[in-house]
């Protein structure tokens, strides 16, 4: 591993070189360099996730009688950053290899100043049109792209045997940005008032600056990386790539969708129970951050379990458990709909318990699915006997990085789907979320079946990498 200390460029990086990784060759241990980049990548991605989800907090500061936006409009308002962030993940995936991981982390962090400044301004103008709010919310989607570039960058730093834990830790640390900004929103509502959203924006203007400075001082660029649109196109030639992208809708799509919608669902229920708008905002904020927090914490453990047991198995177990969790929401919703008035205390507990379980399980599934991606291409690379060891490693890293970005983009669209389904359910004749809960349950059944059918069938295990299926070595890696 050769690097120049002046411009923080690493000319050649081979994470699979055990001597270089451990530092037994007399140079700086590769694991120390990778750890330093991981730490600042997590922080920058953490801030990006917070900015991406800022409107899940802002809607709690937007009583309808002041801003003129009803609950249905708010679901679209939080769906807009999700949609834009999904598409931003495609170019962001390519950027680290094109411009350097360190360089792009600095740039992508500074870009977050734009949505923060716009959000601060527009929240101070309650009479602003709904269209303007939607445009400003769209700029928050820039934060969604940070995940793809961060994951593609860290994927290149770590050896295959440690990717599950490293990618899970990177993603989990980034995901915690969602509950963190919700917690800051709670503190502002509880200690100041629910009319001071500008404080949340001001805090993050400072954090963005810290992320950019930290990346500039402590991160590195890798010179031997390849990730471009042609690599992404090549990765998408394999059936497994499309299957993984679909499954990621069920794991990450659930996490980000529920993260943006959970507070609104709680707020609607508290308002139905007789709370004033201010009380409903406070009570929703007191609970809403717990789901994303636990989902973020569980993500690295999903990767670690996948390292030990196998990504395919853990992912299947997760989807089966998510079917059960969605069943709790369906049962609570059916009982609630059958009774007049606001939800009872027991029904509210069931709603919260069901959502919390879904958050934890989606976090585990996020970690396990992202372990599967590099395992798939590592196994496929071994089927090319005409390639050298270095060529196999380079191809695997390139394909994994490309698919991580694409799957992340498709998965994020699941968040849009969740908010739109919830909105449709609330504006229907039923005026509740129960129909949406049924849709979620059915989708998890499909995800569980697809996971088993493609990755765990005995027939799939006997296929070769050239057939586009995941071989046994990748399932159990």
From TrEMBL:
Which stretches are transmembrane?
37-55, 75-92, 104-124, 130-152, 164-190, 196-220, 241-262, 282-302, 314-334, 346-365, 402-424, 436-456
Organism in which the protein naturally occurs = Mycolicibacterium diernhoferi
Keyword Membrane in record: yes
Which Gene Ontology cellular component terms are annotated? plasma membrane
PROSITE patterns the UniProt entry points to:
MFS
User: What family does this chain come from, according to its entry?
Assistant: Belongs to the major facilitator superfamily. Nitrate/nitrite porter (TC 2.A.1.8) family.
The question of whether rRNA processing is a record keyword is answered with no
What lineage does UniProt assign to this protein's organism?
Bacteria, Bacillati, Actinomycetota, Actinomycetes, Mycobacteriales
Q: What is this protein called?
A: MFS transporter
Subcellular localization is given as:
Cell membrane
Q: Which part of the chain is the Major facilitator superfamily (MFS) profile domain?
A: 243-477
A GO molecular function assigned to this protein is: nitrate transmembrane transporter activity
Q: Give start-end of the signal peptide.
A: none
* Keywords from the UniProt entry: Membrane, Nitrate assimilation, Transmembrane, Transmembrane helix
Membrane topology designation? Multi-pass membrane protein
Listed under GO biological process in this entry are: nitrate assimilation
């Amino acid at each position: 591993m050769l690097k120049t200390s002046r411009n923080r460029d690493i000319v050649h990086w081979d994470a699979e070189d055990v001597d270089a990784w451990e530092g037994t060759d007399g140079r700086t241990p590769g694991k120390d360099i990778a750890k330093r980049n991981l730490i600042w990548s997590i922080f920058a991605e953490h801030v990006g996730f917070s900015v991406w989800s800022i409107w899940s907090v802002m809607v709690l500061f937007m009583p309808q009688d002041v801003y003129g936006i009803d609950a249905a409009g708010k679901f679209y308002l939080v769906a807009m950053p999700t949609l834009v962030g999904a598409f931003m993940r495609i170019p962001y995936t390519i950027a680290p290899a094109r411009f350097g991981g360190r360089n792009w982390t600095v740039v992508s962090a500074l870009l977050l100043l734009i949505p923060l400044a716009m959000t601060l301004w527009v929240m101070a103008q309650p009479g602003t049109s709904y269209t303007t709010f939607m445009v400003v919310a769209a700029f928050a989607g820039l934060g969604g792209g940070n995940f793809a570039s961060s994951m593609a960058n860290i994927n290149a730093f770590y050896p295959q045997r440690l990717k599950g834990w490293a990618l899970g830790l990177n993603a989990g640390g980034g995901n915690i940005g969602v509950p963190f900004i919700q917690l800051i929103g709670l503190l502002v509502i509880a200690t100041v008032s629910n009319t001071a959203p500008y404080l949340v924006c001001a805090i993050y203007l400072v954090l963005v600056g810290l992320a950019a400075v930290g990346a500039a001082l402590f991160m590195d660029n890798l010179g031997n990386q390849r990730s471009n649109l042609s690599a992404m196109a090549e990765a998408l030639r394999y059936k497994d790539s499309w299957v993984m992208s679909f499954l990621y809708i069920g794991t990450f799509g659930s996490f980000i969708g529920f993260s943006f919608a959970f507070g609104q669902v709680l707020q609607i229920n508290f308002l139905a129970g007789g709370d004033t708008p201010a009380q409903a905002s406070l009570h929703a904020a007191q609970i809403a951050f717990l789901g994303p927090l636990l989902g973020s914490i569980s993500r690295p453990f999903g990767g670690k379990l996948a390292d030990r047991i196998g990504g395919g198995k853990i992912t299947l177990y997760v989807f089966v458990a998510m079917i059960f969790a969605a069943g709790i929401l369906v049962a609570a919703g059916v009982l609630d709909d059958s009774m007049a008035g606001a939800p009872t205390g027991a029904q509210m507990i069931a709603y919260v318990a069901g959502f919390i379980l879904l958050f934890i399980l989606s976090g585990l599934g996020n970690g396990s699915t992202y372990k599967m991606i590099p395992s798939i291409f590592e196994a496929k690379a071994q089927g090319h006997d005409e390639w050298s060891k270095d060529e196999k490693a380079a191809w695997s890293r390139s394909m994994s990085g490309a698919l991580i970005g694409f799957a992340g983009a498709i998965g994020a669209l699941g968040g849009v789907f969740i908010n739109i389904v919830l909105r449709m359910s609330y504006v229907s004749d039923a005026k509740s979320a129960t129909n949406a809960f049924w849709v979620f349950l059915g989708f998890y059944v499909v995800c569980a079946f697809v996971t088993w059918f493609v990755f765990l069938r005995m027939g799939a295990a006997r296929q070769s990498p050239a057939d586009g299926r995941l071989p046994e070595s990748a399932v159990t890696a």
